[in-house]
Amino acid sequence: MGNDSVMSNNVELETLRSDIDEIDLKIQALLNERAGCAERVAEIKLRDTAKETDSKIQTNFFYRPEREAQVLRKITERNDGPLRNETLVTIFREIMSACLSLEKPLRVSYLGPQGTFSQAAALKHFGHAVECRSASSIDQVFAHVESGESDYGVVPVENSTEGMVNNTLDNFLDSTLKISGEVEVRIEHHLLVSQRTKAVGISKICAHEQGLAQCRNWLDINYPNADRQSLRSNGEAAKLAAETVGVAAVAGEVAQAQYKLERISSNIEDSGDNTTRFLIVGTSDIPKSGEDKTSIIVSSRNKPGALYKILDPFQRSNISLTRIDSRPSRSEKWTYVFFIEFEGHLQDDNVKLIMMELEENAVLLKRLGSYPRSLDW
Q1: 3-class SS at 310?
Q2: Under a CB-based contact definition with an 8 Å cutoff, are residues 288 and 279 in contact?
Q3: pLDDT tens digit string along 206-231?
C-alpha cells in the first residue's frame, strides 16, 4: 500500500473519529436532558402524593411497569439496525433505570446470595441503578416485599427443562402480593473453580439442585467420580468454591465475577435452550400495557367435570392459556389448586366475564395479577 493510500485512510479515520466524538456529545446532552425531564416528572408526582406517607404507594406512582414495557416495544418496532433489538433494549433499560433512580431508587429483593441467576434477572428487568437485596430463600423474598423492606421481589417460577418451581407457587397461595412483571434469562452454566482448586483437582461439585439436574449428563461424562452437593443457590455454591479447596461450582457469569473464580468449562448445560422465567412480585395492580398476561389461582369442587367448567370459559372466549399447573390444596386432602396463566388483562371486558363465571363454579379464585409480557430475549 502506497503512502498516499495510507494518508488517505488516516484522514478518513480521523474524520470518522471526529464524527463519533460529535455524536457522543449529542448523546450525552440528550441523556442529561432526559434525566432532567425525569426529575420534573418526579416533582409533579411528589406534589400529587404530598399527603401520602406510605412509601409503597409512592413507589407505585414512580415505577410504572406498563409504561416501561410500552417504551421498550416502541424501540424494537422502530429499530432499523445495525444494533440488534436486544442491545437497544439493554441500553434503554439502563437509561430508564438511571432516570428512575433520580425520582425514587427502587429496592429489589432476589434469591441470593450474590451471583445467582435471580440477581441477573433482577438487573435485566430493573437495570443496574436499583438497590438489590439478597434474600436467603424464596419465602424471604416474599417477606421482604410484604413488610415493605423491598419495593419488589424477583423469584424463579419455571425452567424450560426442569419445569415449575413449586416453592414459588406455594408462596402465592398465602401471600397478598401481586405479579408485576416477568423476565426470562437464558441459563448458561459454567464449571467454576478457584486457582487453588484448579491446581489440586476437583473432588466435589456444588450447585442448586436444578443447576445440577440441568447439567447431569455433562457431569456424568466429565466428572463421574466427583461428589455432588445441592445448595440453596448457585451463588452459594460459587461462594463455597471460592472458600474451599477441591470444590467446584456450577454457576453463571455473575457468580464468576462476584467471587473471582476461573471458568474451566463453559456452557455445560445439557439443553442448548435452557431458560428460566422469573416473576416480579409487588403490592399493586398493574394497568394495561397492550400486550399482557394474567395469572390466577383456582380451586375446583371435587366432582366430575369440575376442571372442564374452569377451562371452558377461556375456550369460548378464544383466550389462549399459556400455562396450567396443579398443586395440592392445603385445606383438604386429595384436592388441588390450579395455577392458570393466560393472555389478556383483568381489565379486559371478556376477562371480567370469565372471572365472574369462575367465581360461580370454583371454591377459590385468587387473582394474582396482570402484567406486561416479557420481550423475546
Answers
A1: helix
A2: no
A3: 998 888 999 999 999 999 999 999 99
Strand positions, DSSP E, 237-355: 247-251, 262-265, 275-282, 292-300, 321-328, 336-343
Element (H, E) at 200: helix 195-200
In a domain, 150, yes or no: no
Structurally, how many domains does the chain consist of? 2
Exposure string of 193-207, with b = 16+ CB inside 10 Å and e = fewer, is: bbeebeeeebebbbb
Q: Are residues 335 and 260 in the same domain?
A: no
Query: Rounded distance, CA 331 to CA 160, Å?
Result: 30
- Do 294 and 229 lie in one domain? The reply is no
Q: Is the pLDDT of residue 51 over 60?
A: no
Residue 84 to residue 80: CA distance in whole angstroms: 9
CATH number of the domain within which 323 lies = 3.30.70.260
Q: Is the pLDDT assigned to residue 56 strictly greater than 90?
A: no
The three cell numbers of residue 141 are 423474598
Same-domain status, 297 and 220: no
Lowest model confidence (mean pLDDT) among 142-151, 286-295, 302-311: 302-311
Q: Region 37-55: what's the mean pLDDT?
A: 71
Please check whether residue 199 lies inside any domain of the structure.
Answer: yes
319 and 352 both lie in a single domain: yes
Could you identify the residue written with the cell 369440575? 306
Q: Residue 148, by phi and psi: left (phi above 0), alpha (psi -120 to 50) or beta?
A: left
Model confidence, pTM: 0.85
**Structural domain for 230, as ranges:** 190-265
Pairing label, strands 292-300, 362-372: antiparallel
Contact 341, 277 (CB under 8 A): no
Residue 15 forms part of a structural domain: no
Residue with cell 369442587: 301
The long-range contacts involving 319-322, CB below 8 angstroms and separated by at least 24 positions, are: 319/343, 319/344, 319/350, 319/351, 319/354, 322/293
Specify burial of residue 255 (Cβ count, 10 A radius: 0-12, 13-18, 19+).
Answer: buried
Q: How many CA atoms lie within 13 A of 365 on its CB side?
A: 12
Let me know if residue 332 belongs to a domain. Answer: yes
